[in-house]
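Cross-posted from the bioinformatics board.
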Amino acid sequence: MPYYLTDKAYHKYLVFLSCYPNPTTRKQRIVNRLQEAMRKDVERLYGVLTARFYMLLRPSRFTSVLQMIKAVKAMAILHNMVVLELRGDFLGNLRMAAAASARAAAGRWRAGRAA
Amino acid sequence: MAAFRVLAFGESYDRADEYVRLSKATIEVCVKKLLEDLITDYEGQYLRQPTTTDLKTIMERSAARGMPGCIGSLEFSHWEWRGCPKALAGQYISRKKRRAIVLETICDHDLYINHIFAGAPGSHNDLNVLGQSPLFMDMMDGTWPPKDLP
């Protein structure tokens, strides 16, 4: 059964996985650790969105809800385009990360940036 | 271009008047057209419901991180609304005493947005918003998430 990660406020349904509020057993603590580790990465979505579209950070000047919904949707579409452009496949990402750390270790990264 | 600047930098509509003499009204029309065109042209491609293949890829990546079966993360946020009409002020006032609308999103590891639902009044809490979102209705009908996944 597939599920979504949430925080503690939601229904206790099979499709929502929140962490245990008071973990007592070792299993519960492990689940909590994994859940939080995964969730903290996706928590930054709104940080990324507002950095990309500053409009979202300021009170909007539209006068109808419909316009705001359209704006949010359009922003999501643009954001998805950027994500698809930037991400490789899963293994590609790993390879890129390895290459980047190798470059950083060799100290060539900064030199490349300066040139 | 000016319309993109409005979205990306939150510029006011009359900013471009200063140096390229594009009037406030022109840019307002441009922004509205840009939003509409983006949605009509690209919504089916970039904001569609994830297919079974998509979900399987996401689940593989989750499994690699120790959470097999996870297909994304549910999040809520508020967007403040300055142009809110006085008549709606009571409905849209959020718990921070500001007028706002609520955004509901589901994203995966790369922050790719799989589902977005906006427009619920700011006075609603996350559970109320979830209750009225089309995604949750699909869950209640049993049509989502798909049953043929492992």
